[in-house]
């Protein structure tokens, strides 16, 4: 399956415009108009659309992560199990991403059993999301732990707590059945 990151008029590469028309899915995280919406929830309270100022590479990384997640959800597996996923990704500095492309593809392949290909296209700095409305207090947490709700992440969190760490759990949920469970968290 072919996926593309949508960045609007910030990318003027003619091949990119052509690829947008032929992609199986175009993933758009642009503020207010995207087909992938992002918001923060803290202690069960939603804080609206993401409001953060990021460096360009951080925003590129975040949007790539969103693309990978959405692609994993959209691309169905067949009897062969391994999917071939191709990504066209406009980024501010393609040389950074090209230099780590093999490692990225290997790690993702190991985690998912899929084959990944990337094409990095130069673009202008992405629009910011603004300033985050709620800041986490400094010094309250000593580590951050990804938390999916599965047994493996639960055990990781328990080990960190047993070691005396002050843990900040970070997770996500998709629309559907899991989105209604967010009210149950504290």
Into how many domains do the coordinates divide?
Answer: 2
- The SS-based structural class is alpha/beta
Which stretches of 5+ consecutive residues score pLDDT under 50?
177-186
**Largest beta sheet: strand ordering:** 2-1-5-6
What average pLDDT do the residues reach? Answer: 77
Q: Report the oligomer.
A: single chain
Give the N-to-C terminal Cα separation: 38 Å
Radius of gyration: 18 Å
Strand content: 15-25%
> What's the total count of β strands?
8
Anisotropy-based shape = globular
The H-and-E topology, N to C, reads as: EHEEEHEHEEHEH
Give the helix proportion (percent range).
25-40%
Alpha plus pi helix count = 5
Biggest sheet record: 4 strands, parallel
Features:
8 strands; globular; 186 residues; single chain; 34% helix; alpha/beta
Write a structural description.
The protein is 34% helix and 22% strand. The protein is of the alpha/beta class. It folds into two domains: 2-122, no CATH class; 143-184, no CATH class. A four-stranded parallel sheet has the order 2-1-5-6, with helices on both faces. It is globular and about 55 Å long.
Q: How do you describe this structure in short?
A:
The protein is α/β, with parallel strands linked by helices and 186 residues long. The protein has helices at residues 14-22, 56-74, 94-112, 151-162, 177-180; strands at 2-5, 25-27, 39-42, 45-49, 84-91, 115-122, 143-146, 167-170.
């Amino acid at each position: 399956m072919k996926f593309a990151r949508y960045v609007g008029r910030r990318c003027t590469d003619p091949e990119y415009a052509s690829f947008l028309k032929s992609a199986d899915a175009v993933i758009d995280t642009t503020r207010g108009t995207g087909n992938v919406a992002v918001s923060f929830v803290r202690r069960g309270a939603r804080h609206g659309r993401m409001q953060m100022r990021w460096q360009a590479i951080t925003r590129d990384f975040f949007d790539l992560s969103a693309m990978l997640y959405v692609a994993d959800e959209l691309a169905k597996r067949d009897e062969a199990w391994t999917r071939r996923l191709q990504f066209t990704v406009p980024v501010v500095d393609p040389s950074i991403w090209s230099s780590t492309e093999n490692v990225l593809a290997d790690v993702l392949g190991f985690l998912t059993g899929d084959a990944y290909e990337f094409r990095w296209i130069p673009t202008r700095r992405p629009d910011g999301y603004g300033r985050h409305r709620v800041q986490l207090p400094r010094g309250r947490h000593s580590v951050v732990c990804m938390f999916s709700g599965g047994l493996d992440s639960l055990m990781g969190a328990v080990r960190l707590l047993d070691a005396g760490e002050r843990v900040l759990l970070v997770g996500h949920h998709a629309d559907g059945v899991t989105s209604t469970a967010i009210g149950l968290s504290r």
